[in-house]
Predict the 3D structure of the following.
Amino acid sequence: MSSSNNKIPVAVLAATGTVGQRFVSLLAEHPWFKVVAVTASERSAGQRYADAASWVVPGEIPPGVADLVVRPTDADPGDVPLVFSALPGSVAREVELALAARGYAVCSNASALRMEPDVPLIVPEINPDHIHLIKAQREMRGWSGSIITAPNCAVTGFIFPLKVLHEAFGIEKVNVVTMQAISGAGYPGVSSFDILDNVIPFISGEEDKLETEPAKLLGKLADGKIDPAGFIISPQVNRVPLMDGHLAALSVKLAKDAGMDEVREAFGSFVAPEGVRDLPSTPERPVILRSEDDRPQPRRDRDAGNGMSVSVGRVRPCPVFDVKLVSLVHNTLRGAAGGAIQNAEWLVASGYLGEQTLERLHVGTLAR
Amino acid sequence: MSSSNNKIPVAVLAATGTVGQRFVSLLAEHPWFKVVAVTASERSAGQRYADAASWVVPGEIPPGVADLVVRPTDADPGDVPLVFSALPGSVAREVELALAARGYAVCSNASALRMEPDVPLIVPEINPDHIHLIKAQREMRGWSGSIITAPNCAVTGFIFPLKVLHEAFGIEKVNVVTMQAISGAGYPGVSSFDILDNVIPFISGEEDKLETEPAKLLGKLADGKIDPAGFIISPQVNRVPLMDGHLAALSVKLAKDAGMDEVREAFGSFVAPEGVRDLPSTPERPVILRSEDDRPQPRRDRDAGNGMSVSVGRVRPCPVFDVKLVSLVHNTLRGAAGGAIQNAEWLVASGYLGEQTLERLHVGTLAR
Amino acid sequence: MSSSNNKIPVAVLAATGTVGQRFVSLLAEHPWFKVVAVTASERSAGQRYADAASWVVPGEIPPGVADLVVRPTDADPGDVPLVFSALPGSVAREVELALAARGYAVCSNASALRMEPDVPLIVPEINPDHIHLIKAQREMRGWSGSIITAPNCAVTGFIFPLKVLHEAFGIEKVNVVTMQAISGAGYPGVSSFDILDNVIPFISGEEDKLETEPAKLLGKLADGKIDPAGFIISPQVNRVPLMDGHLAALSVKLAKDAGMDEVREAFGSFVAPEGVRDLPSTPERPVILRSEDDRPQPRRDRDAGNGMSVSVGRVRPCPVFDVKLVSLVHNTLRGAAGGAIQNAEWLVASGYLGEQTLERLHVGTLAR
Amino acid sequence: MSSSNNKIPVAVLAATGTVGQRFVSLLAEHPWFKVVAVTASERSAGQRYADAASWVVPGEIPPGVADLVVRPTDADPGDVPLVFSALPGSVAREVELALAARGYAVCSNASALRMEPDVPLIVPEINPDHIHLIKAQREMRGWSGSIITAPNCAVTGFIFPLKVLHEAFGIEKVNVVTMQAISGAGYPGVSSFDILDNVIPFISGEEDKLETEPAKLLGKLADGKIDPAGFIISPQVNRVPLMDGHLAALSVKLAKDAGMDEVREAFGSFVAPEGVRDLPSTPERPVILRSEDDRPQPRRDRDAGNGMSVSVGRVRPCPVFDVKLVSLVHNTLRGAAGGAIQNAEWLVASGYLGEQTLERLHVGTLAR
């Protein structure tokens, strides 16, 4: 699929915010997708995208999107089979449900529907089979569309080490303390008055997400529903004066004994599942295990694998549980827009966008 | 003791470094002590203090100290009964032992001797009775001097909530993740190249101190030795781009059930022990329990109680242990020079400096 | 005036913002003034001050003010002779004019009326005699109240070196580049997304103020109006990731030759004018000339003289003009609330508050 | 020249420092050059490069260089025709002279020889013809080697707007105030204790370079020497808490009248000279003129043109001179290693490396 002509046309909802901008930026060079519509709140509707968006992500506004006229979020996103949602919590639920009901595939970064029993919460390297929850979703909701969600940005990072440990040894308990970048709060987000020369030991609503989402992600799909994993997580979150990159310090109690060599081996042997491996956004090494004493570090490691690799380090025994380690994720790439785009790739690769849809759009066989 | 004439003359060892400067700065207005001698490495010896010290702490160099001639650290600190040590680890052990052997009282901020069985490791509000370990020390070492030490700067912070919880409910296990200020590394210390827009999940040698010092601090003095408290601590330390203030996120497993109201009550009722309460450096409220969702914060709370109060907040249940909370300490005041000065006050108030010494120096009865 | 009973009661307008909070904080211990009323926008009116204000300045909310009920800004500020205005530009003009017309003395930190021909723009050490412009103001406006204003926060800093140079040698041209702290933008003010690891070479509306206010400040009062000083200023302003302290790099073309020794002497001999010298907020040394190569620095020097001293350094010849130097001001103390309070002190000391007013309020003779 | 086999082998001197690391990093993918030798001080000599270098620049150590054994700086850099020098000032002069005398082409980023009359100081887009000063250099020094230097990192930025203005209108006087990133000081460089929440209005030795280098860069080559441009510059430099990117605020007095439209046109029409345009490191747009009020900003614009474009903005009239503007350069890319590599490309393209040398090395015709 080399020419832009047979790319899948997509819309970005809430395209003027920081996550929306990341979607637009990452999709500019995407081999499968092409942004043909953008939406935003009433205030911006009707303006050129370049005028409506106060562009804050790296690089310039992609020329093909700069001149699109912003549509109101509650209007029709146009003749596209797939929409990316960067909608704020307050409106995400209603708009996403309405769009799926009208047949759109909705790949969402919003938290509103993540924990709905029939909505897949997916990181393709972690729980690719959960994509099939869409079948149950379509049946129950009676629609031909679909909604799939990507987890909270901090969860998207430390779910990688949890996956590795859970699969190899079983997890019983987790204590996790995060140090999160200011970009996670969007724009204008965190006031510099609050965060310069400071740390804020609180992010509204965040700890709930860290407690609940991992168990769903590592749960099992059976009979059209997810049976959550049985471990308990105790999170404490902090905002630190850092642009990008969420760092997590984890202590994990395992179900069976594990030497540090075995743990490191488990990390070393992790690879993306077949199928997922070949998605355009899947990095060569989804997890990078570092052996230095003082890594990973946000500024130095967040861009690994184009911001899609999760870095893990400081693997060592924990005197109160079993294993301690540190993990790092680029929160606005892997942890937000990049993750939702990879989810959309997986949706397409899994056949859920529909042959008919692709044919109607004259989109040929996906090839890279 | 209102006039400067009958203050106790003291020396500051390694007075040109950041902790040494804090000693000099805090002692400038001290009601009991007066700096009459300063030492530093060979390189600085013989210079005026104001020329030798690259002054980096707030305010100006106290006039009375600016013109002192710096003595070499291995020389005699002069006719003083008490010395404050800000010596680096490499030389602290040897120099401090030699001085105590020659009759000096050494109040040290160095880590070298903290875990020696006969050396008191003291925070006056926490374990004031450990001062009496000096008797065993003098007997065993056969000297008339003394060495007392203050704990690691991060430990000095979270030992306050641990003390409160241990006394009220008993502690079994602790998971602690710290976010530590750059001033803790001295000067030049942390390169800005390493820490701007970054977090470093490592501080050399720090986690060992956090694992071992709390149990000694909360241990019991009996038969001339300290029986350490029986809990286990698992620390993870991080350096963050912050000037002053070490923040700690704690999860604690208690020996008996405790509701959050009981926990908050225990914090609310903590006061400094009699005797300690009246020391010049003891703050009115050693522990400040905050009820806001997002406090304590380093920039906003580190100066509470002239930097000697420890702030605690976010007290809430922990799903994997029992209680979670956040605590904050000003690492270079309470956590370094301020703590060692308060220790010296406690040494004097406990009578260990010696009546004869005070009389020889024409220092009258301590009064404030 | 030692007891709180015979202090002058005052109101703070827009008391919930950052400058308003600084007023409340600084007035808590003021020997002459006592805050008895606070106002804010409709949204906050009717609430307790402690609930309405998201307190962000150092220290805790003064107890005497915490429980005041916030009045709406357009209502009567109560039975007080003097109000401090931290009103935003949009409403300052109308509200301040209305209050002066009703007899209040308005000491404003807002920019709205600074350049009005009959409104004094004052820094007491710089142009104390401009206070007498109030006579013309009262005559022209036909009111018994008064409005006096304090200059822009950056101007308040570099006006000190300009004053010294203008008086001693005459100034013809000035090139000034500022590096301004984020606290100057209030709260939430500058997004951390914009300023972390960045510099913004722009502050809306700021350069106009830097071009015009200095000439008025150094102008001459004659015949009931200010004849502005005749020099030209070219400013360039920048926002830098710094909490407090506006730094300015100045190049100045003088009217007559001046050796660097003469320039330094001029700085060394600057003192506050008689009368101004004794105001409670006037620092012992209004200008501190530093001789180090690398000072003044914001974090190290902003608090000099309780944040009311301006620090000057790096005095050296300028190859394109005559003199280059750097000056620093604490922008929210001297440059905002502190300056307006000192103006109010000067207004009272100059007799413009009115004997009758003071008597009616049972406020006795001012004494310190 | 597509295969690595016929690339020109080069050595990097002082390869373990931050600029040395940038050389190694940028040369990893260079189409013409291949690093085959690295040198460092005695302390590191004999170690693997990956062990000797405390790698701090983005990305990982290039595999081809990681295993090179570090040579001592005063030894032979090996069978290479060209060396890149990141040597510190203290040794650069001696080592660089010795190497040129032995026939090496030395492309230096050090300041030691920049102002030598027979050493070209070059930015290829600015003064490409100065390369021919090598002829005079070889004649005078009696060597077959060569030394060419790149200017100071801050100068490399603002020389672009000066070039445009000087060519179009003539420059008489310049006032420039810089805000410079901490990466300019190398590693460990600036202590975080000095720069967090601070600005330092001083960089040792920097202002001298800013006063003298621009006149040489914009000077004319005639009769084997450079006749410096006749304008005067008055610089003031500042270090700000910023990772990368030197920002400069310029005020310029022109020799003839210029409207702002003419000035903007002059910027808009600037292109790299023929020959220079096609060098691998020359960006498509050497100068990017921005029209927003608040750009360029370091974090947002430093990476333009792979860090080789200089961004200019805020072009407006200056009341004391003629034009004010802001310019930005990536100090460690365009302003250090990137600039010196582009110089080497220009040296090769200009034929100064010597056909014989290239033939002996079996390096074919340069082609991209």
